Amino acid sequence: MVFIIAKQELRNLLREGRFRTAALLLSGLFLLSLFGAYDYYTSLKKQHVEASQTARIYWQYTLSGRAPLQFFPV
Question: For residues 67 and 2, which has the higher predicted lDDT (pLDDT)?
C-alpha cells in the first residue's frame, strides 16, 4: 500500500515542470562545480610538481657546494 502511494506521488512529481526545471538547473550547477574542482586540482598539482623540481635542483646544487643565485631573488 505504501509503495503504491509513493509510486503515484513520484509520478506526479516528475510530471511537474517546476521539478524538471529545478533538477536541470541543479544538475548544471553540479557539473560546473565538478569542472571547477578539477581545474583547481590540476592547477595545484602543477604547482606542486614545479615546486618539487625547484627544490630538487636547489638541493643538488647545495650538496655540490655551488648554489645558483637565481634561487635567491633580490
Answer: 2
Q: What is the pTM of this model?
A: 0.60
* List of long-range contacts for 13-22, beta carbons under 8 Å, 24+ apart: none
Amino acid, single-letter form, for residue 43:
S
CA distance 71 to 41: 26
Cβ count near 73 (within 10 Å): 5
Q: Where are the alpha helices (DSSP H) in 1-74?
A: 2-15, 17-64
Q: Tell me, what amino acid is at 5?
A: I
Place of cell 633580490: 74
